[in-house]
Design brief:
It contains six helices and no strands. By secondary structure, it is mostly helical. Bound molecules: methyl (2R)-3-(furan-2-yl)-2-(pyridin-4-yl)propanoate (RH4).
Length: about 130
């Protein structure tokens, strides 16, 4: 009902704010747009589900997420894909993996510090009811 749509609107505002703050962080520049398949032709062979911060924003606007947990599953793909596609010991791979780990830790810290657990529970109840 209307109260539920008010809750999901607030969820989208929270998720947009988190995602935009990540996209402004210079460490996460490589994660802001999809990996360029022309530049990296084997990327889709290795990575089954590409994800990036701009796609998270599109998903939010398309009402794809009813809970923070659903958002986190896609957000986690960004750093997981980077660790998987860039596993080597060369400095470039180590650099993107360091940034991937920083992204993982930063998302978790923001959610821990800023997501109200009662609000999250209401979102989970809406999800269960649908
Ligand atoms: C999330 O970004 C990536 O996984 C690409 C993969 C990539 C390899 C070559 C071109 O792009 C990346 C970008 C910047 N620095 C390292 C790797």
């Amino acid at each position: 009902e209307e109260q539920e749509e008010d809750v999901l609107r607030e969820l989208r505002l929270f998720l947009r704010n988190v995602t935009e703050r990540l996209a402004l962080d210079r460490r996460f520049k490589a994660f802001t747009k999809p990996v360029d398949i022309e530049e990296v032709p084997d990327y889709l062979i290795v990575i089954r589900k590409p994800m990036d911060l701009s796609t998270l924003l599109t998903n939010i606007d398309e009402h794809k997420y009813v809970t923070v947990s659903e958002f986190m599953s896609d957000a986690d793909l960004i750093w997981q894909n980077a660790l998987e596609y860039n596993p080597d010991s060369d400095p470039m791979d180590r650099h993107i993996r360091h940034r991937a780990c920083a992204l993982k830790d930063t998302v978790r810290a923001i959610i821990r510090d800023e997501l109200d657990e009662d609000f999250d529970r209401v979102c989970e109840e809406i999800k269960e009811s649908r």
